[in-house]
Amino acid sequence: TVAGNTRQIASMVANYFLGKGFTHFAAIDAREWPGDRNGFPQDPVRALRTVLAGRGLSLDVCYWQPDLAPDELSDYGMIMEKLGRFFRQLPKPVALLVPNSHYLTMVYRVLEQQKVKVPEEVAILCNTDNTRITEQSVIPTTRINGEMHEVGRKMSELLHRMIAGETVPEEPVYVSPAAIVS
């Protein structure tokens, strides 16, 4: 198994936003994704909550469908309503982690409807290597760079070693992103 080092990702996110002067933190997701691998949470939101708590800070989270099954779809109107309420009650300025690029368009739409200034009131950081989404957006969006490319590279490397009959690690291999790109 090759997976992202969510603790390292969370530390990078916290350090980035703290370095920008943020003291309020938030995240959005469909639900909390359970499970750990060797002490690493699979969910970057859970990892960020833990890192911030270790620094005496809290994380406000909006889970729009806590009982969501992995293959189930959510109601768009319900998501927009819950995100709207969530963003209205957040103290501003706030640093926002969006763990999945699929959620960005909803976040952008809600923030635009509420006339929230980005990045002055809500600074957005998305866990994605997809430059087309973040760099082509009219809304400034910071992204995590390099994790998914490194996961793919490591997976290919391990597969090649397996095909060659070499021994591969029994334990998961964790990779960290290269940088955060504003």
Short description:
The chain has 182 residues and is of the alpha/beta class. The protein contains six helices and ten strands; from the N terminus they run E-H-E-E-E-H-E-H-E-H-E-H-E-H-E-E.
Quickly list its features.
182 residues; alpha/beta; six-stranded mixed beta sheet; two-stranded parallel sheet; globular
Can you walk through the features of this model?
The chain is globular, with a radius of gyration of 17 Å. The chain is an alpha/beta fold. It has helices spanning 6-19, 44-54, 76-89, 104-113, 131-135, 147-163, and strands at 2-4, 25-29, 36-37, 40-41, 59-63, 94-98, 122-126, 141-145, 173-175, 179-181. The longest helix is centred in the C-terminal third of the chain and has 17 residues, at 147-163. The chain is built from 6 helices and 10 strands; from the N terminus they run βαβββαβαβαβαβαββ. β3 (36-37) and β4 form a beta hairpin. The strands form 3 sheets. The protein has a 6-stranded mixed β-sheet, sandwiched between helices. A two-stranded parallel sheet has the order 1-9. Helices cover 39% and strands 21% of the residues.
